[in-house]
Amino acid sequence: MSAQLDLDSILEFTINLALEAGEMIRSGQQKRFSSESSNEDEKANSVDLVTEVDKAVEAFITKKIKETYPDHQFIGEETFNGQKITDEPTWIVDPIDGTTNFIHGFPMVATSIGLAVGGVPVIGVIYNPFLDQLYSAAKGKGAYLNRKTKLPITGKSKPLQSLGHALIAVEYGSARSAPQLPSKVKTFQTLAGSPDLGGKMCHSLRSMGSAALNIATVASGGLDMYWEVGCWAWDVCAGICILQEAGGAMFGPKTSSLSGEIDGDLLTGRKYLAVRGIAPSSDETSLQVQQRFAREFY
Ligand code: IPD
Ligand code: CA
Ligand code: CA
Ligand code: CA
């Protein structure tokens, strides 16, 4: 199906849409910060938040997509009602990824717009309006930062010696009750812990509060890996396209499938491991090296 789509023009449309959404996010934050009555609603619990700006940005993105591609399906975080991803072209949108950061004024915030065909992400645009950083990719056409800098920006797939040398992003997410939080924290401790305690003692852990920006940073090479349990399709769809075009691999949602392929039904996948592009060795391809690190991780 993707062969019938003009990915160049869809990418151009998506980039312009993300830039416009970014402007709404910037001005929406200014308005909130200058108002005495701005507040946010709680969704599943007291740390699962949504603002009027999340909803307005999603409404704007939906309207533009429906006007331009009336035959396409649409799934967005704030209007999600249990839709399944079919083989049809489906836009998968997180209007604001990093809502908690947005509310606090921590600048790791992005709009994330992806298009999947047959369950495979073919367009991905992630725009951070506070740092003016635009990550974009179309399947088969490479991934870029601010349209010009080809990803990864750290050089072509620098080697990774071991998990102990890795800089790894992890997130707490909003599911904080048992068994989710203790299980996540156990993984954090194992990754950060001293080898004497059986841990990997990786270089360090980071937690930026935006799944999309974590994936984009793995694509750019600034992070070696990003692991999270609890992501939804809108957190990862655009990022997967960017990551894969930058030579990285996304593992999951089934941890047993380390093929580097994404499971067709993105909505049921809640556990993801992104690994950046890593140089092949004399007897291993890049994907085999990534799979080895993914296995070591689990
Ligand atoms: C969240 C952020 C956060 C991640 C959560 C996501 P939201 O998205 O990406 O970093 O830990 O799993 O739900 O709610 O800000 O769009
Ligand atoms: Ca949310
Ligand atoms: Ca999100
Ligand atoms: Ca969101």
UniProtKB/TrEMBL annotation:
Main enzyme class: hydrolase
GO terms, biological process: inositol biosynthetic process; phosphatidylinositol phosphate biosynthetic process; signal transduction
Pathway note: Polyol metabolism; myo-inositol biosynthesis; myo-inositol from D-glucose 6-phosphate: step 2/2
UniProt xrefs under CDD domains: IMPase
Keywords annotated in UniProt: Hydrolase, Magnesium, Metal-binding
PROSITE patterns in alphabetical order: IMP_1, IMP_2
EC number(s) from the headed UniProt entry: 3.1.3.25
Residue sites binding Mg(2+) per the record: E77, D94, I96, D97, D235
GO molecular function terms listed in the Swiss-Prot or TrEMBL record: inositol monophosphate 1-phosphatase activity; metal ion binding
Catalytic reactions on record: a myo-inositol phosphate + H2O = myo-inositol + phosphate
Cofactor: Mg(2+)
Family listed: Belongs to the inositol monophosphatase superfamily.
Name used for this protein in its record: Inositol-1-monophosphatase
Organism: Kwoniella pini CBS 10737
